[in-house]
Each structure stands twice: as structure tokens, then as C-alpha cells.
Amino acid sequence: MSDLSNYRKSYEKSELLEDNIPEDPINLFNRWFHEVEDFGGSGEVNAMTVSTIGLDGFPKSRVVLLKKFSEEGFIFYTNYHSEKGKAIEANPNVCLSFFWQEMERQVIIKGIAQKTSEIISDNYFDSRPDGSKLGAIVSNQSEVIPSRTFLEENLKKIEADFEGKSIPRPQNWGGYIVTPLQVEFWQGRANRLHDRIRYTSQSDFSWKIERLSS
User: Fold this and answer.
1) Helix 130-138 vs helix 148-161: crossing angle, to nearest 10
2) Residue 41's pLDDT is what?
3) Among 148, 169, 189, 192, the one annotated catalytic
């Protein structure tokens, strides 16, 4: 057994106070996102964990890349026939989370996922490199395959088929937009007295702001 009880760190880089936050969580998310980006930390700033409830009843989390965010929601792309796609089809309640270690910050978003329009999916797919496009076509994401060689050989066949041709978006691949219902911002503080501010969507399209105990 590995004893990790002595792994400790004091969080002292910033603070999150009510007199310095906007009424809208998307504005605060935008501020934090670009502050982390400007800080120049390692890794991908837009990497986020997507958690779903699987068809087997268990929650499952995986890291994907956020591709766009606005007042309407948070967009990512995937194979609709993948494990996560099937889970979202059965239960669109999802959770997104970002952990930006360099700034000692975390954001947790509860929301409802739905497919983006085909136009949005087409436009993003068209912007991808050809290799990524072919990868989306050849990979039956989450399905059991016999070997790595099986996947690579299928890719070679697809590359030959589409040589010199435009590559269309497969219908089982596209975007999801997550409409936020609740957004929690966590800022690490000293002595484990962290700042936690939660925004909850209201029926009049405003946001209720609450401080949570650490």
C-alpha cells in the first residue's frame, strides 16, 4: 500500500471574493480561462473532464478538449456512437470540470448536453487536418478491436480511398453543446479554507450566487 497522507500543498496564489466577480458565470469563466492561458502553464488550457452516467449505471469520466464556449454553452466533439455518446443519448445530464493546477483553480459545470447543429459540426470537421478527419472515420470509438495493427491497416485503406478527394464528416461524429445549469468556481487558499463560489441558473435567466464552505 502507498501511503499518500503526507502529500500536502499550501494554496496561496489568488483569491475569489464576491466584490470582484461578475453576475454571469460565463464572464468569470472567460476571465479565468485567459488568465490561465496568459500565465503560460504547461498542458492544454482547454482540456476538461466530461463525466456521464453510463448505460451500466456507473459514472465515467474522461478528458476531452473544449472547442468553444459562449453564453449558450460549452462545445466539444466526439463520436456519437462512442460510450460517452451512448451515455449522453440515454441521460443528457453531464458534468464538466477543469483543473488548472498552475493557478490553483478548478471549475465544475453541471449541465444538459445536446447535439449541435449539423452546420456547426460540419464547419468544425472541415477545419481539422486530414489525418484527424480520417481518424474520425476509421475509429469505431469505444469498440473492442483485435489489435493496433487492425486500426492502422484500416487507416491505410481509408487514406487510399480518399486520396485527392474531400473528406466528408461521418454522420456519427459531431458536436455536443452543454447548457450550464450550475457553475462552481474553486480557488485554492491557505489552510484548506478554499474559496468556492457557485452560480445556479434561475427561471428568469439570472444567476443565483452563493458561497460554499470549503
Assistant:
1) 120
2) 66
3) 192
